[in-house]
Inverse folding.
């Protein structure tokens, strides 16, 4: 197997990162940032597999460079009157640290960013901080805090009319409620998120929320019943399939009574003659 392309990409990124670090240490911050971005583009579009150890190592090196750049810029603007820049740099650092799985440090920068954005009246960015803090606490299994921050984000997004932010908040609250077994709340939140994405014509957002709703249905033990002229065909979880495999009609009636979230689709099978 010819690895020439992979070797060239690896060499080019390593040289780029070394030069970018030199530029950063020499005070050429903007050039360091631009070169770092070029390295990131080359990694994403080059010949390296995303799952290869070399690719993962280079990705971490690029993140380290970005963290150094953001840390230096934050230090330089400490005496600046521009609070937005300070808040945003804290937010960037929080995101980088989170990707690096340094969640404790990420939390500190998120909270600092949130305090600055709130004090400076940047409501949209304040909501972003709350939303990302919520998902961070969710990943730490601190669900009460996760819900509190998601609800704060939702309130701000509704108040400022940020529909995309509102949909994200509903989606986050829906998946959180799903993990907590609060299925009625989960369905309400996810359907609201889906409605907003539909109105906005966001097809990717629609697809994501349809996937979340499918997860909700599965968590509820929901089964899909397709009716044809030769009887019923059941689609659903393996547990449900086992229950209805041998006596579909009798078991479907039973399951419908104890599971209110059963979908019934009438579908005439053209390959089956009428009885």
């Amino acid at each position: 197997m010819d690895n020439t392309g992979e070797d060239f990409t690896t060499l080019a990124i390593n040289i780029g990162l070394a030069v970018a670090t030199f530029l950063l240490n020499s005070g050429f911050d903007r050039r360091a940032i631009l070169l770092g971005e070029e390295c990131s583009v080359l990694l994403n579009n080059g010949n390296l597999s995303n799952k290869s150890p070399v690719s993962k190592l280079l990705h971490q090196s690029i993140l380290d460079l970005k963290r150094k750049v953001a840390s230096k810029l934050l230090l330089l603007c400490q005496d600046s009157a521009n609070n937005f820049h300070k808040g945003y740099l804290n937010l960037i650092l929080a995101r980088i640290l989170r990707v690096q799985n340094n969640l404790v440090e990420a939390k500190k920068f998120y909270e600092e960013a949130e305090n600055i954005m709130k004090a400076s009246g940047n409501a949209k960015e304040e909501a972003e901080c709350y939303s990302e803090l919520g998902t961070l606490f969710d990943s730490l299994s601190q669900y009460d805090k996760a819900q509190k921050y998601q609800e704060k984000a939702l309130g701000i997004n509704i108040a400022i009319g940020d529909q995309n932010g509102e949909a994200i908040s509903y989606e986050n609250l829906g998946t959180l409620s799903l993990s907590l077994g609060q299925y009625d709340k989960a369905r309400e939140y996810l359907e609201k998120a889906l409605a907003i994405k539909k109105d906005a014509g966001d097809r990717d957002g629609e697809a994501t929320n349809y996937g979340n709703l499918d997860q909700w249905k599965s968590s509820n033990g929901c089964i899909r019943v397709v009716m044809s002229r030769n009887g019923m065909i059941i689609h659903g979880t393996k547990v449900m399939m086992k229950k209805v495999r041998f006596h579909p009609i009798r078991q479907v009636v039973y399951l419908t009574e104890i599971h209110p979230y059963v979908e019934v689709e009438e579908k005439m099978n053209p390959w089956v003659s009428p009885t």
About this structure: The radius of gyration is 25 Å. The beta strands are 224-228, 231-235, 263-266.
